[in-house]
Write a structure and sequence with these properties.
Elements: H1 3-19, H2 22-30, H3 44-51, H4 54-62
Helix pairs in contact: 1-2, 1-3, 2-4, 3-4
Length: 78
């Protein structure tokens, strides 16, 4: 997967998490969407946890997202 495609997949994952679209998130994760930091240092897992999307948090953890990553202000959000 080239870097442009990875960037698009990462952005699609972030948007799907923000909108709470569990099916889209699961699909993107299965296709290898990377969980990367946004401008605030948050991963999709931070975003899902902050929004209270328990099913998304579970899906992201099951997909192997790192639960130890802290955002730029050192919040775990769990």
């Amino acid at each position: 997967m080239n870097s442009h495609h990875q960037s698009e997949m990462s952005e699609a994952l972030r948007i799907a998490v923000e909108r709470g679209h569990i099916e889209r998130v699961v699909d993107l994760l299965k296709r290898g969407a990377p969980s990367v930091l946004d401008q605030e240092g948050q991963t999709p897992l931070h975003i899902a946890a902050s929004a209270g999307h328990i099913q998304l948090v579970d899906a992201l953890i099951q997909a192997g997202c790192d639960v130890t990553v802290q955002d730029f202000v050192s919040h775990l959000h769990f």
